[in-house]
Every structure is written in C-alpha cells, then in structure tokens.
Amino acid sequence: MLIVHHTPSPNVQAMFEAVVDGATTDEIEGVTVVRRPALAATASDVLEADGYLLGTTANLGYMAGALKHFFDQIYYPCLDATRGRPFSYYVHGGSDTSGTTRGIESIITGLGWEKAAEPVTVTGEPGNEDLDTCWELGATLAANVMP
Question: Entry's Gene3D superfamilies (predicted)?
Fold first, then answer.
C-alpha cells in the first residue's frame, strides 16, 4: 500500500502519523506500507502498490501543489494499469476543504480508482476523534489490500 502525503504542518503531521499507525497495526498482515512525500512519489511507486492513501492540506481552496504535482506525474503512466485499485484520502484545512475534496475526486474519477473508505477531512486542530478516524482510515485501506 502506498501512502502519498504532503505534510507541512503539525496538524497534518498528526493525521499522517495516525494513518500510518492504523495501516501498520499488528492486525494487518502481509501488507507492506510504503510512505512517500508527494514531491518524491513516482509512477513506479504507484504501479507497484495495490492501494493508495493520499494526504494533503487544503491551500487557497485547492489541494496542495505537491499533491497536484504527484497527480500530474503519474496520471498517464498509471491510467490504465491501476484502474479499480482501492484508495482514499485525508485532508486538513484551516477553514474549508471542499475545493480540495472536489479536485481529488475529479482526478481519481479519471484514474478509475475505487474508494475503499470514506475520506477524512478536518478543519482546525485535529482532536482525538479526528485522529481516531484517521487511524481507522489507515487500517481500513490496509485491510483492503491484505492478501
């Protein structure tokens, strides 16, 4: 499973850590979790993974440029080969995440990935319940790619 993330702040870092903890819990067996910053993730990373968990901030009404760059780099090389693979995402914003969500959903529709869990969106500082939901998101995605 590939986690592609843009983690520039303590709030989104906390969400990322919760997602990773969920994806790597002892209850998940046979799943290798690869973590890549969005600016470093490649088409090869995507092609080698069985599922995807994306994380980003909401910046000025849209996903962070780092995640958009990731999509720009992998879209055509991965378009046909990854259709139907499970994915989900988490987004952190100061006040609104709707533009980011809309952008991610649009690109994912084109890629043909299948949503395996409801995305997590948080505005402001993530609370314990938000972080628990992120943990569940990581565990759910990893369970979807378990052999």
Answer: 3.40.50.360
* CA proximity to 74, closest of 104, 44, 99: 44
Radius of gyration of the chain (CA): 14
34-37 — which CB contacts under 8 Å span 24+ positions?
A: 34/1, 34/2, 34/3, 35/3, 35/5, 36/2, 36/3, 36/4, 36/5, 37/4, 37/5, 37/6, 37/7, 37/66
- Rounded CA gap, 50 and 110, in Å? 18
Q: Which amino acid is at 7?
A: T
Q: Rounded distance, CA 69 to CA 59, Å? A: 14
* Domain topology for 2-145: Rossmann fold (3.40.50)
Q: Where are the domains of the chain?
A: 2-145
